[in-house]
Amino acid sequence: MSPRRTPVSRRDRPAKSPLSRGGLVAVALRIMRDEGLERVTMRRLATELDTGPASLYVYVDNMAELHGALLDELVAELDLPTDAAARHWRDELIGLLVRYTGLLMGYPSLARSVLTLRPSGPHYLRLIDALLGLLHVGGVPARQAAWGVDLLLQHATATAAEQGTRDESAVADSEAEQLLVAVREADEGDHPNVHRVRDELFSGTGEERLRWSFAVLVDGLATTATP
């Protein structure tokens, strides 16, 4: 028979750390890094923080807000360009967007969630400010830059959501191989344009194609007036 446990007075228990929004987000970030965003639930967070799920809604209204806060913490890790680097504004802009995309690729579930969010955290706001600053140095008119930032970040997030999800998929490689075979075997008479560029459809590395896509968007928004 196991010895009887002596009840511990609530007064003698170690004091819990006070709840806070920062503490909540820190625990959620740790779980996401270790186990994935799917494991970040209010019930799991409440267990980790030794409280009830309802008490957490004092700090975040819903899971969407929590996801936005997680994104903000990740964005804090990005190296933003300095004023001295702004002389090469186009390369710096594309490089920053590539880093942001790569950061989100590590968390495809968060990237999918961010597609429908309007993040507003302080670190995310600094990212927007850095992008706008580089576009300003490049002489892009204010309205085109303002509209363009939304387009650039949307493309980065969508790319991360797509590629990150495919990286997690067990059938992604076989699907890509099937498409490759279909393109190579496409009949010239039925698909003349596919046949003409079939060697280029899959050319280039992932980063080369990502940088090129951002270059297209940056050059386009710099030269295309808003209505």
UniProtKB/TrEMBL annotation:
Domain HTH tetR-type intervals: 18-78
DNA-binding region (UniProt annotation): 41-60
A Gene Ontology molecular function term of the record: DNA-binding transcription factor activity
Keywords: DNA-binding, Transcription, Transcription regulation
Any matching Pfam family: TetR_N
GO biological process: negative regulation of DNA-templated transcription
InterPro entries linked to this entry: Homeodomain-like_sf, HTH-type_TetR-like_transc_reg, HTH_TetR, Repressor_TetR_C, Tet_transcr_reg_TetR-rel_C_sf
PANTHER family reported for this sequence: HTH-TYPE TRANSCRIPTIONAL REGULATOR RUTR, TRANSCRIPTIONAL REGULATORY PROTEIN
Protein name listed in UniProt: TetR/AcrR family transcriptional regulator
Species per Swiss-Prot/TrEMBL record: Micromonospora sp. CCTCC AA 2012012
